[in-house]
Amino acid sequence: MISKLRNRFSLPLLARELTQQAGRKSLYAARTALVLGMILWIWLAAGSRFSQDSTLSINNLGIGRSLLRELVNVLFIGVYVLVPLLTSGSIAREKENDSLQLLLLTRLGPWAIILEKYLSRVLPMLLFLFCALPVFAYLYSLGGITEDVVFSSFYLLVLAVLQLNALCLACSAGTGTTMSALVTSVVIALGVFACPVTTFLFPPLLNWLAFDGRIFNYGTVDSGWQNVFSVLMASIPIWISTGVFLILARWLLIRRSAVKTTNLIYVFFQKLDKVFNEWNKEMTGGIILIQDRNDLPEFEPVAWKETRKTAVGTARYLIRLLVALELPTLFFCAFLMTEGVQNVTIFYSFTLLLLGIAILILINKSSGLITQERMQQTLDVVLTTPLEGKDILLQKSRGVRKLWIILMIPLATVVVSKTLIINPEHQFSYLFLIGGFIAATAYFCIWLSIYIGLKQKRHIYAVMTTMGVIGMWCVSFKLVQLIDPSSMSRDSYTSFLMILSPVEVLRLIDQITEYFLYDEAFIFSTALGYIAYTVAMALGIRMYCLRQADRLLGRISDENSKPEGVPNPAEKSLQEEPSPA
Amino acid sequence: MTNIVEIRNLKVVYGNLTAVKGISFTIPKGEVFGFIGPNGAGKSSTIKVLATLQRNFYAEAVRVNGFDVRLQPQKVRQCIGYMPDFFGVYDNLTAREYLHFFAAAYKLDLDKREAIISDVLELTDLTHKIDAQVDSLSRGMKQRLALARVLLHDPDLLLLDEPASGLDPRARIEIRELLRALRDMGKTILISSHILHELSQLCTSIGIIETGKLVAQGTLDDIYELLSLRRIVHTQITNLDEEMVERIGHIPGVDSLERQVDRLVIRLKEGETPIEELHEKIVENGARIRMFQPEAMDMETAFMKLTEGKTA
Question: Which SS3 state, helix, strand or coil, does residue A218 take?
Fold first, then answer.
């Protein structure tokens, strides 16, 4: 009887998923790093805010509120970064491994599959949130927080995990690859949460309102628990959206179980191609200025393939991409320029947005150069040809170089437009610094992505790792500020620290045009320092990749050639033969 | 005879796992060497070492055409053609573009490329598919295209890792015939496969590997002899009686006899009496032979006897 019941209510898929996760050392490392990071942050953040006179502990009372607000914000960021990365592959990977259809043939029903997959991703994230509870308790002890704030913050964090997991699961069920599931999840999440009509479905927004007791009554509430009730009521649409996403996942699971992998960029370009061809026929009668060459490779086969046979490689598609990005940018810039100098700050946001998009496209393309070949199992065959590893890498990067140039053009449009409306005194400095900044940052990101792509087996891991590294790079100055609040001054030490973070440097360069918080010499030296060290790092990574190309690609290199009698490096490590497993 | 492949005491290690534990063998020029073993025995690891794709290995010597794999990998790459055990095809390339891609990678003369590609396509019977997209070809055609690619630079050694796996019978026969043609052209081939019957028809020598160790190596006859396998001959003798059976049983080399309804099954000790001599001796004993049919030697039996199904 008991065994029958156990059999009836067993969750084999959940058990398998959790066992698989338990076997991944990287997940343990990531979780430990997150928890340690959280503890470190709270230690540093709290430490920096404690009163200098530690004997007067009364002075420290009340700082818990601002710290909790910051902690919850950081946790929300963690949730919104980690959940898409962890959940996008849950069903899509089964499709990649051709195991979903086998799963559907078992006695597990579609709902069981969806719910067990859902739980397998929700539980580890909740575990991560539970790790934050002792920190909540510590902050509570610092004062300034009421129980209802703690409760509603944690409740909304949990809700965010549930909702986002359901959304990512639906995307994973609807797409053929982990990468496309990730992209779809991000696009849909941005669409839902940024749209003014549906923004109330965004749990962090609710949390910000709840923190100040502004849900429903827009004023200070008399009772804390009244606030909790308001949060519960306001969160009903989020629960409904979670349910809708789960139903959508269930619906897509069967219908899209045999979905063929499609290159979304390729499809996008094909559609764009069709539109452009129609326009061309209507407007010019079908004149073709640049005809794609249908030639065969002569001396550089890998470069030929990258620039003639990939979606974002051929001149035709690159021109279309340029037009698709440049036209709206031109219109937008022209509109802002007619408005005059008061729009300088909008230019900054627009530059940041365009740069972010460009970097993301470059990361995706560069990190996929080798990982895509590994995944398609075409790399080994190329590696047994006499092409040198260095040549393979350089030829591979030819397509990325073209893409880089194309993506820099809309950015140049924004930068030049802004330069035209700022004070002529600063025009040259601004143009020089921002141009150098953008080019250097993009160049660094390309080679960092190529290096990480060489080390990783799967494209998605390479993209995730690169984004993680770049994310850490962007917030590095903030981290230093936490450790050392004196870095807020404007001396050479601050300048040295500021060059650590591209976001800070971009903000600094932007200030050359407007605020004059810093003098021009300070901005110049900091920005130049940043450009110099970024380019140096990029060149260093490039040199390392090229020198170690054979090793990183996974084949024996000619560098192994050694004079007689010199022990082989591999020989040394194998002198003590390990016992068979 | 020149050895195209020479491996001495090769060890391949992945972390804590030793996949290949000190194997040694040589392949003379023009031989077809069949590499047999269960999954995880170390076949692909050994082939990867020869293909310069395995960095972590230790060996007293691994040479291809006299070039040391570790010290002269570029020279080794010039004289090998490697076909992995999976289809690695590029999207959006036609068969022509695919072969031109590798012709350029092997730095073939520009003015000779078209002719070479045409030749290899003809050899692999894919001329009619020259402008077809590679990913639209059938599995068998893809394998033949991979063989065409391998032949582009006329390598001295072909490393074929399970070329017939996953193919339907027709495609398998086509690949086998193609490999026979290559053997007749004098190519040295190292081929790993699970399809033992086909290997026995194709290979001049074989190596059986299990848990990273070479358990047997040599020609098929050498291996049968090593295992003391009995050769079986089915005969129908019209004047068969007890006396005749006894006389045949006394012929040197005959191990045992089994009288079945319609035939006499003779088991011979391997290496003692050739089949032709047995026939003569039976006739000398006054037998009138209606049927004399030696049973094909069973490689599967040899394989099962030599291996225990363990993995490294």
Answer: coil
Nearest Cα residue to B102 out of B154, B54, B52: B154
Determine the 3-state secondary structure of B82 from DSSP: strand
For B219-253, where are the E strands, in sequence order? 230-237
| Residues B107, B178 share a domain | yes
User: What is residue A558's DSSP assignment?
Assistant: G
Q: When comparing pLDDT for A563 and A402, which is higher?
A: A402
On whether any CB of chain B is under 8 Å from the CB of A44, the answer is no
- A7 burial via Cβ count (<10 Å: 0-12, 13-18, 19+): exposed
Q: What is the ipTM of this complex?
A: 0.78
Q: Which residue of A has its CA nearest to B71?
A: A561
Put simply, the chain B residues between 77 and 136 with a CB less than 8 A from any chain A CB are 77-78, 80, 82, 84, 86-93, 96-97, 100-107, 110
B40 touches B1 (CB < 8 A): no
Among A297, A384, A560, the residue with its CB nearest the CB of B51 is: A384
Whether residue B308 is contained in a domain is answered as no
Q: Where does residue B281 fall: left (phi above 0), alpha (psi -120 to 50 degrees), or beta otherwise?
A: alpha
Query: What is the spatial distance between Cα A18 and Cα A41, in angstroms, rounded to a whole number?
Result: 29
Is residue B55, in this structure, part of any structural domain at all? yes
What residues does B269 pair with on adjacent strands?
A: B230
State the amino acid at position B282 in one-letter form: I
Task: Return averaged pLDDT per consecutive 10 residues of chain B, 312 residues in all.
Answer: 86 86 89 85 90 88 90 89 80 85 89 88 86 85 88 89 78 81 86 76 83 83 68 86 88 87 83 80 89 74 65 52
Q: Are B62 and B159 part of one and the same domain?
A: yes
pLDDT bucket at A564, cuts 50 / 70 / 90:
very low
* Least confident span in A21-35, A372-386, B30-44, B259-273: A21-35
* Gap from B303 CA to chain A (nearest CA, Å): 23
Q: In the block, which residue shows the tokens 């076997």?
A: A23
Query: Measured between beta carbons, which residues in chain A are less than 8 angstroms from residue B11?
Result: 574, 577
Q: Let me know whether B45 and B106 are in one domain.
A: yes
pLDDT for the residue A520: 73
Q: In this complex, do B104 and A556 lie within 8 Å of one another by their Cβ atoms?
A: no
Q: What was the pLDDT predicted at A289?
A: 65
> Quick check: helix, strand or coil at residue A567?
coil
Do A67 and A39 contact (CB within 8 A), yes or no? Answer: no
* pLDDT value at A567 more than 50: no
Q: What is the pLDDT of residues A256-280, one digit of tens each?
A: 877 766 666 667 766 777 787 788 7
- Chain A residue whose CA is closest to B19: A580
Per residue in A187-196, pLDDT tens?
888 888 888 8
pLDDT on residue A445: 94
Based on the domain organization, do B288 and B158 belong to the same domain?
no
Q: Which domain holds residue B120?
A: 3-224
Boundary of a domain, candidates B160, B190, B224: B224
Test A385 with B57 for CB contact under 8 angstroms. no
Residues B105 and B187 grouped into a single domain: yes
Q: Are B234 and B199 within one domain?
A: no
**Cβ count near A57 (within 10 Å):** 11
Is residue B266 situated within a structural domain? Answer: yes
| Half-sphere exposure of residue B60: CA atoms within 13 angstroms, side-chain side | 9
Report residue B96 as tokens. 């022509």
Looking at the fold, whether B132 and B258 belong to one and the same domain comes out as: no
Q: State the Cα–Cα distance between residues A381 and A391, nearest whole angstrom.
A: 15
User: Tens digits of per-residue pLDDT, A441-464?
Assistant: 999 999 999 999 999 888 888 888
Q: Is B16 within 8 Å of A300 when comparing Cβ atoms?
A: no
Residues B45/B11, Cβ–Cβ less than 8 Å: no
* Same domain assignment for residues B133 and B178: yes
The sheet that has B188-192: what strands, in order across it?
B80-83, B157-161, B188-192, B32-36, B205-210, B213-218
Among candidate residues B224, B240, B261, the one where a domain is terminated = B224
Q: For chain A, say whether B1 makes contact (Cβ under 8 Å).
A: no
